[in-house]
Design goal:
metal ion binding, binds 3-hydroxypyruvic acid, TIM Barrel, binds magnesium ion, alpha/beta
Length: 271
């Protein structure tokens, strides 16, 4: 099945959908990473999480970021700061291919997010898609209104104790596509050790709840090894790392090579 939304196609047609976290409001950073990566059909990225919850990104950056990412054949998924209708509407009107909301605690919370993402009669999204189609290559204005908007991905984060306790009911909400685990908040909100038994049991329960109703399960990962482990556990969608982690680690690694403290096996030329 092919969709104007790359991530929707990737979730249907590939075993794992890879993404990364964009925290800097830079289309140049997003495009630089995506231009160096293979197409998602060859195992590259199918989504970028545009982080307006904890990143330096805000409302006025959405349009440019969504367009840059969308025109690389990849889906911009905007994590809005909170599950407010007006925040979701602004991100969708600026061309988000999907919305992610933090801290979903109940089926009612999830149903509201679905409603905010869809036009009536399904939901309550206000109408004004003047700019939204621009981030979908080849989609004409009427095509966005008639078809594409209904395919935008609805992703909620499960990262609290009530979220875990209600996760089977949340997963069953119609129109919800993905349960996304925020492992850091999950541990803190549950007041359990990150990586400990209760934390891992909660993660497993969320994964199973999603799969038991045919929904997708996703998780934030702190690097490739973490992602690998979660793929082997059965996750459908993993983030690899963040832009800032790569910049910080990469710069430090080269500094250590320059100081003779570690070896580089890469022969680099140019920038
Ligand atoms: C968390 O770990 O809490 C997240 O939301 C990932 O960014
Ligand atoms: Mg979180």
């Amino acid at each position: 099945m092919s969709s104007p939304i790359a991530l929707r196609s990737a979730l249907s047609n590939t075993p794992v959908s890879y993404g990364f976290w964009l925290t800097l409001p830079s289309a140049g950073v997003a495009r630089t990473i995506l231009r160096r990566s293979p197409q998602y059909t060859d195992g590259g990225f199918s989504w970028v999480l545009v982080d307006a919850e904890h990143g330096l990104i805000s409302d006025h950056h959405y349009y440019e970021l969504n367009n840059a990412i969308g025109h690389e054949g990849v889906s911009p998924i905007v994590r809005v700061p909170w599950s407010e209708e007006w925040m979701i509407k602004r991100a969708l009107d600026a061309g988000a291919h999907g919305i992610m909301t933090p801290m979903c605690h109940s089926a009612e919370d999830a149903a509201k997010v679905v409603s905010y993402c869809k036009y009536p009669p399904v939901g309550s999204r206000g109408f004004g898609p003047m700019f939204a189609p621009h981030a979908f290559p080849g989609v004409k204005p009427d095509e966005y209104n008639e078809k594409t908007h209904g395919e935008v991905l609805v992703v909620v984060q499960i990262e609290s104790r009530p979220g875990v306790e209600n996760v089977e009911k949340i997963a069953a909400v119609e129109g919800l596509d993905v349960l996304f685990i925020g492992p850091f908040d999950l541990a803190k909100q549950m007041r359990v050790t990150h990586g400990g038994e209760e934390h891992e049991a909660a993660i497993e329960r969320i994964l199973n709840a999603a799969h038991s109703v045919g929904k997708k399960a996703a998780i934030f990962c702190s690097g490739g090894a973490d992602s690998r482990r979660r793929i082997q556990q059965g996750f459908d969608m993993v983030s690899i790392t963040t832009d800032v982690a790569v910049f910080g680690d990469g710069m430090l690694q080269e500094l250590e090579v320059a100081k003779g403290n570690s070896k580089s096996d890469q022969k680099k030329g140019g920038y």
